[in-house]
Design goal:
The complex is a heterodimer of chains A (863) and B (151). With 863 residues, chain A is α+β, with helices and mostly antiparallel strands. Chain A contains 33 helices and 10 strands. Chain A has a 5-stranded antiparallel sheet with strand order 3-4-5-8-7, with no helix packed on it. A 3-stranded antiparallel sheet of chain A has the order 6-9-10, with no helix packed on it. A two-stranded antiparallel sheet of chain A has the order 1-2. In chain A, a hairpin with a 2-residue loop joins β1 and β2. In chain A, α7 runs parallel beside α9, α15 packs parallel to α17 and α27 packs across α28. Chain A is extended and about 125 Å long. Chain B starts with a strand and ends in a 6-residue tail after the last helix. The chains are: A alpha+beta (863), B alpha+beta (151).
Chain lengths: 863, 151
């Protein structure tokens, strides 16, 4: 009975008739009817339609907390997922769009990937539009389903509607994988030849993408490029130029092939400039700046290292450079590109000067972006067009005061590149002022740059020391750690400035002990030159009156201060110890040292214990041990902001002040001949005190020991890497410029036995008279080669020896060649040179070994 | 070429992201975070250019939205500013006095417009009118092909 009733309700509802109400049906009847209707709807119809995209966006935006938003998203995602499961074509598009929105908010959307594919495959344009959008957002080439798009894209590339084709080209061109590109390159090539400019321009950029992904496919697009530049349509022209640029950048052959297009490009550019107002492409009075810039860039690539092409574009570049309106950013964008092109091709000098002047004008522009771009470009050209850039030095220096961080940094780099012997004083003033006031992020680089520049171009030692002092006192905590040893070396080598230096450093310490590098350098100096300090010997300025106790107070203060790092404490303890031979208040020093022998800091403790031992058991050695440090050999510094490549691999000449200073044995021990090979059991502090001055022209390195040789200008070319031995290993000596005493020393035969003869030739590599450079020449008069030849040497304790690599280890038979090897001997005490040599080699299959003494050194080699 | 284009609000909410190179999802999120931090942290009158890894970053603020793109090192930054400006002009023409809300509620349209202006990280059309006409025509096509029920 119920079911009959039910079926009659159905009938009524279905036919839309609703006569019941007009028949004065009782209310209960109507309510029951309504109930059945709802039941019917729930059972026989689907869930309500998914909410619209805009509505979802609105709803999500009302969420007040992240948690609330997440809840809404989860709910909607669940609904979308079930909708996807039902394979509902109607709402797929809407659901995917919502998913893309949620994806943008940061929520996962991977379950929509396949749905995007289905949308792409649909015939409806709306579906395709959203489908391709979804593909571009969710389906990059890392996804497994990415390749499944290929067929759809292929079909759509051949679609009858250009907008569908456009969608496919766009998707392929933005994110097609290499496989996809390989599969579809042919279709793209076809479309590149179509007359439909809407498709042609897209195909050109698609081709660019294909070439980027699969460079081997470049060839296949070559035929299609034939007439690209004869197009009138700007869109096609622009994308064609991009395509040509890409091809030329990737393949030198293509570059050669397309060079012939230069006249055509010049013509197009000329038309753009000369043509009147074109509403379609006008930007602030300039016709199609995008195209102009791209053409300029292509011209740059084509004109690079080719005289003819460069000449062909000279005129147009000059025209663009002079005629472009500079009041707006767009004009400056074109000028910027023009300048880059001029500087890169083989342009005539007049044009180059014009370009640099444009950059100079840029520097004065109110627009920060333009100033920034100018500084960046000038930095690129400063090496090649140095003099031209120098003319704008004052403007560049003014940029140091700019408020913008990026501009300041560029200006700083450029300023350091412009420093030379002529402008050092003025530039340094500006740079030091900059150092005072700049942000901490700059201070380290600026300080290093100042040290470098000062070292190269300091007009006087006093100026140099003052500059260092200024940096240490103003930016002392930002100075790099390796500056401390470099500075110490510098100070040591400026012998006549010791008193002045120690006095200034002492005064600085009185003011401020928080800046560790300053404190470290100061303590070291006080330890070294404390005697000069208390004796009031300073010539450069008014000597201060200070007593030994005051000095020791300061040093002890460093030891106890919370501001001092462990390294600093080490410096001050050693300094105090050194003063025991320079001051008379030895007892006080003894006391300090003994206190620290129970310090918690292991390093300090060790030092104190050793110094204590020095007082107790080895007091006779103390004066010698704590003697004044010798002059250290100068090496070029290796700061990170090194702009000139004066130095490849430097051997650091760091005096490691943690160890005991150089032990100089008393004279009566010099005659002890040592064991061979390893007999140098004295570990010198300065491992490589050997000179590493570059043998280069220009004299751009300041010789602190010798004359002040100033250079007139920067030597732009990198000089010979310093740490290579100045002598070629085949025995030819390259004549270093400073060499003035080399000629006199005669060679000698050091060893001659069993057919092996070893000759020594002598040179002096540098002004340091303490170093002898000996080149050994080993020759073999027997009929068999001597293989695995090894030459070893040992010298008495007062010498230091360095053996460089041999030219080879085979001494050819019958004097057909020689093995050469360079030995450098440091002989600070000018003792008679003696050497023991050990030779090992294999001759006719059997090993040979021999020891010999060499005593017949000519006197000039060690005097 | 342009590697990516991001639009985000003053609070760092992403409004549009277009990537022209394949990058893992996690990396994309990191880049977005880095860009928003860097750009939002800039002082008001700084220049519009930054360096990040080996890319040049060019950004410009339009009302409450930041437009930020990452370019190859050899790209012309000043021109990139023009590209960003052109995109804003296109949006403005389409939506009429475009504001952030338009882009929020019609993000898919913003993408469609972008896809008519840039392709593979390069400019595909230099004429404003041509781009606008293409979009209009596509929209028309969409209307025609749609069933009565709207999305």
């Amino acid at each position: 009975m119920c079911s009959c009733y039910y079926s009659s309700v159905w009938l009524h509802v279905n036919t839309g008739e609703c006569n019941l109400a007009s028949k004065h049906v009782p209310l209960q009847y109507l309510i029951t009817l309504h109930w059945f209707e709802t039941l019917f709807l729930c059972v026989f119809q689907r869930m309500p339609a998914p909410i619209r995209l805009r509505e979802l966006i609105r709803t999500i935006r009302t969420a007040r907390t992240q948690a609330e938003e997440r809840e809404m998203i989860q709910k909607e995602c669940a609904a979308i997922r079930s909708s996807f499961r039902e394979e509902d074509n109607t709402y797929r598009c809407r659901n995917v769009a919502k998913l893309l929105y949620m994806h943008m908010l940061g929520y996962p959307a991977h379950f929509g990937q396949l749905e995007c594919l289905k949308l792409i495959a649909s015939q409806k344009f709306t579906d395709k539009r959203i489908g391709y959008l979804g593909a571009m957002l969710l389906l990059d080439e890392r996804q497994d389903v990415h390749l499944l798009m290929t067929n759809c894209i292929k079909n759509d590339l051949n679609h009858s509607t250009q907008y569908v084709q456009g969608l496919a080209l766009c998707t392929l061109g933005c994110m097609g994988s290499s496989e996809m590109c390989r599969d579809l390159a042919g279709e793209v090539e076809k479309l590149l030849k179509t007359s439909n400019s809407y498709l042609r321009k897209k195909a050109a950029l698609c081709a660019v993408h294909v070439i980027r992904k699969v460079p081997e496919l470049m060839e296949m697009f070559l035929p299609a490029t034939k007439n690209l530049l004869s197009e009138k349509n700007h869109g096609v022209l622009h994308t064609s130029v991009v395509l040509l640029t890409e091809m030329c950048e990737r393949s030198p052959d293509m570059l050669l092939h397309f060079r012939k297009l230069v006249p055509q490009l010049v013509r197009i550019l000329k038309n753009l400039i000369m043509s009147g107002y074109s509403p379609e492409h006008d930007v602030s009075g300039i016709s199609d700046p995008f195209l102009q810039v791209r053409i300029l860039r292509l011209l740059r690539i084509l004109g690079r290292s080719d005289d003819d092409s460069s000449e062909a574009m000279n005129d147009i570049l000059a025209q663009v450079a002079t005629n472009t309106e500079t009041s707006k950013n767009v004009g400056n964008a074109i000028l910027y590109e023009t300048v880059l092109t001029i500087m890169d091709i083989k342009s005539e000098s007049g044009l180059r000067v014009l370009a640099i002047n444009i950059l100079g004008r840029f520097l004065l522009n109110n627009d920060k972006n333009i100033r920034y771009v100018a500084l960046t470009s000038l930095l690129k050209t400063v090496q090649t067009d140095h003099n031209a850039v120098q003319r704008h030095r004052s403007t560049i220096v003014d940029c140091l005061k700019d408020l913008d961080v990026s501009i300041k940094r560029r200006a700083m780099e450029l300023s350091f590149a412009l420093v030379n012997g002529n402008n050092i004083r003025g530039m340094m003033k500006e740079l030091l002022y900059f150092l005072d006031s700049c942000d901490p992020e700059f201070k380290a680089d600026c300080a290093s740059g100042v040290f470098l520049a000062a070292e190269k171009y300091a007009p006087s030692k006093r100026w140099h020391i003052d500059t260092i002092m200024r940096v240490l006192t103003t930016a002392g905590s930002y100075v790099r750690d390796d500056s401390v040893p470099n500075l110490i070396q510098l100070i040591t080598n400026s012998v006549e400035m010791h008193a002045y230096t120690v006095q200034r450093l002492y005064k600085a310490l009185l003011d401020d002990i928080s800046q560790q590098p300053l404190v470290q350098v100061s303590s070291w100096c006080i330890g070294e030159y404390g005697d000069l300090l208390v004796s009031g010997q300073c010539e450069e300025e008014e000597p201060i009156q200070v007593t030994e106790d005051e000095v020791l107070d300061v040093l002890e203060g460093l030891l106890v201060s919370n501001l001092s790092t462990p390294v600093t404490r080490g410096y001050s303890l050693t300094a105090i110890m050194k003063l025991s031979t320079r001051f008379s208040s030895v007892n006080r020093i003894k006391k300090v040292v003994s206190i620290y022998s129970s310090s918690i800091d292991v390093e300090l403790q060790q030092r104190a214990v050793e110094y204590n031992a020095l007082f107790k058991k080895y007091d006779h050695m103390r004066p010698a041990l704590l003697e004044r440090m010798p002059i250290m050999e100068k090496t070029a510094s290796n700061g990170p902001t090194e702009i000139m490549q004066t130095n490849g691999e430097t051997e650091p000449s760091v005096p490691d002040t943690k160890h005991l200073p150089l032990v100089t044995q008393p004279a009566n021990q010099a005659n002890d001949l040592l064991d061979l090979l390893g007999g140098n059991d004295v570990v010198p502090v300065i491992q490589t005190t050997l000179p590493t001055k570059p043998a280069s022209a220009g004299g751009e390195l300041l010789d602190l020991l010798g004359d002040l040789s100033l250079s007139g200008g920067l030597a732009p070319a990198p000089s010979v890497p310093v740490s290579q031995p100045p002598f070629l290993l085949d025995g030819l000596s390259s004549q270093p410029l400073f060499n003035d005493t080399s000629a006199a020393i005669p060679p000698m035969t050091a060893y001659s036995k069993n057919g092996l003869k070893i000759e020594f030739t002598f040179e002096r590599a540098n002004p340091n008279p303490n170093i002898a450079v000996i080149t050994i020449h080993a020759t073999n008069t027997t009929e068999a080669d001597m293989t695995e030849f090894v030459f070893q040497a040992a010298v008495p304790k007062t010498f230091q020896l360095q053996l460089l690599s041999p030219s080879s280890n085979i001494v050819p038979a019958l004097n057909q060649g020689s093995v050469t090897q360079v030995i450098r001997v440091l002989n600070p005490q000018k003792q008679q040179l003696r050497m023991r040599v050990k030779l090992t080699y294999t001759h006719k299959g059997s090993p040979v070994q021999d020891l010999a003494e060499v005593n017949n050194f000519p006197p000039q080699s060690w005097q | 070429m342009m590697h990516f284009l991001l639009l985000f609000s003053r609070q760092g909410k992403l409004r549009l992201q277009k990537w022209f190179t394949p990058i893992p999802e996690r990396e994309k999120k990191k880049i977005v975070r880095d860009m928003t931090t860097m750009v939002l942290g800039r002082k008001p009158r700084s220049c519009n250019f930054l360096h990040w890894k080996d890319l040049k970053i060019v950004y410009k603020k339009y009302a409450s939205l930041y437009f930020c793109c990452g370019l190859d090192a050899e790209e012309n930054e000043l021109l990139a500013l023009e590209v960003l400006h052109r995109y804003v002009e296109l949006l403005d023409k389409y939506f009429g006095n475009v504001c952030e809300l338009d882009i929020i509620f019609n993000f898919e349209k913003a993408y469609f417009i972008l896809d008519e202006f840039l392709l593979g990280g390069e400019v595909q059309e230099t004429s404003k009118q041509v781009v606008s006409r293409s979009i209009e025509a596509s929209d028309m096509l969409q209307e025609v092909s749609e069933r009565p029920r709207s999305r």
